[in-house]
Amino acid sequence: VQLVESGGGLVQAGGSLRLSCAASRFTSIVPSGEDHAIAWFRQAPGKERERVSCLSLRDGVTYYADSVKGRFTISSDNARNTVFLQMDSLEPEDTATYYCAAALGNGWPTWDDYWGQGTQVTVSS
Known about the structure:
mainly beta, 7-stranded mixed beta sheet, elongated
């Protein structure tokens, strides 16, 4: 399984960015009927890693951290095995390295196994 993020950059406060996570060979290892999901995490220098948003690729169930609700939208293009994070109304506090991660199994038991290399998002005030 390989996860590759793209779409980061520098944007002014109030602006938008769309991050992409291309997940190769992920769906091919999912046992029949099992849930599987992609999540976006972020980490800023000196801060703890935060789970920003998740999307179940089986059910379409989504999760958003309170800090991004109403501003970020997670979606997928299953044909391209790609998950997107549309980030609108960006704030300087959103500045961080953003990572995508994958989880297998009902209840998404762990995010530890599959991670991308990260993409930097910088929001200027």
